[in-house]
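Aim 2 progress. For Histidine--tRNA ligase, the working sequence is reproduced below.
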Amino acid sequence: MSDAKIRRPRAETPKGFRDYFGTEVTTRKAMLDKIAEVYHRYGFDPLETSAVETVESLGKFLPDVDRPNEGVFAWQDEDTDWLALRYDLTAPLARVAAQYRNDLPSPYRRYAMGPVWRNEKPGPGRFRQFYQCDADTVGSGSVAADAEICAMLADALEAAGIERGDYVVKVNNRKVLNGILDNATDRVMNEDPIQGNSDVIKRAIDVGKRALHSIADDILRTLDKFDKVGIHGVVELLTDGRRDASGAFIPGLNVPPIAVEGLVKFLLAKSETNTQTIANLRLAVGNSKVGAEGVDELEQIAALLAAQGYGPDRIRIDPSVVRGLGYYTGPVYEAELTFQITDEKGRPRNFGSVAGGGRYDDLVKRFTGQAVPATGVSIGVDRLLAALHAKGRISADNTGPVVVTVMDRDRMADYMAMVGELRSAGIRAETYLGNPKNFGNQLKYADKRNSPIAVIQGGNEAESGTVILKDLILGAKIAQNATLEEWKDRPAQDTVLRGDLVAAVRRMLDQG
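Predicted structure tokens for this construct:
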């Protein structure tokens, strides 16, 4: 078959995926290493789980004939189990906690970092494979575990390079919202009293509560639009509906006005101090037992954090954290970066959230049938890296290796000996392994590798027992805009004795 008829694969990444090269990989690793140091200091252990889980274990998606396991990348294993790539790091933790429950300490504190995969429609900045960085405590129902996660998250952000004042960890509680809904129902019933015996009234109140709680997720999504549409817009969306900027009408949820009043109080409860915010929330939940329990938990978290020196400048009680509340059973938290960046159209905007989490006490119950309390947080690795880039705080070294050039093929052993000495001294180095015929190509290679120094030894240098060190970084600066004085003070090329190779290279690297 001729080459013209051979069907060759396209050299391109699949849609929704991307490749990461040198500096991107080392930058991410450097950031994650700093976060891991914080987690380790808090007593958390690392955990690496399989990238593949059974669909039954994942528990969120089920096989489908036309498109199996929409939302995950899945396949059937030898006509038995459906398998899938993990879509987060929490589902594998649930399986591990159940599978090894007799061997693991309780509570079990772990952190995990790695890629996850989601079979979703990709878009700008939205990929089907991305990194997550999680920390969870399984087996503790104490709010001290929630407070610890919040403190650890604040410390991790600062360790990664986000300065104090550029972030805030906001804490809320799902129980408070449940209390708001209960209180709203009670107020509706009191405004329009029900006649009849106590059993009838009780059933009516239960029906009313279920009606509001049945649209809790819709209410959550509406409250989450507070920053975009303001309090007036939220009220419109909760009641009769509103027109958006394009003129399109968005139907409302038809929540009774007296119930909306309680939801507005909930949204506006945030104050300058945690103490005042908690007091405002107590008024908002009214006589709701579950609501009062949620407020008590927030008060305990604030007190535990204050005892460790975490004030509202770093971690604060904030009812505006509503995204994802439907998944959680208690405290919920979100790390928001407070500085502004410029978008693609040149407009200033807040950077926004880079991490979120909370208490989810049904984690292991699917496997064991027994309730197991758990709380944890997940950091969006790519989002945090983008924030560090925006603030100019990426510190990963992208300097390439010292390149030992090859002037004579027959003397390759000599060149490899030089590289061996440099490496033994802890200096990153490599020998040029391409075609050495064109020396210019060797220097172009060194430039492309971002090499700081090229080591050159031709026949004359070998006879005199010397090597030439070419300072590629300074040479590039001189070629651009260095002054004559700089050139005279520090030439971009130097000849040293072969025996002084390591010391001379180190001096040149130290000069930067």
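Confidence is low (pLDDT under 50) at residues 62-67, 192-209. This observation will guide construct design in the next reporting period.
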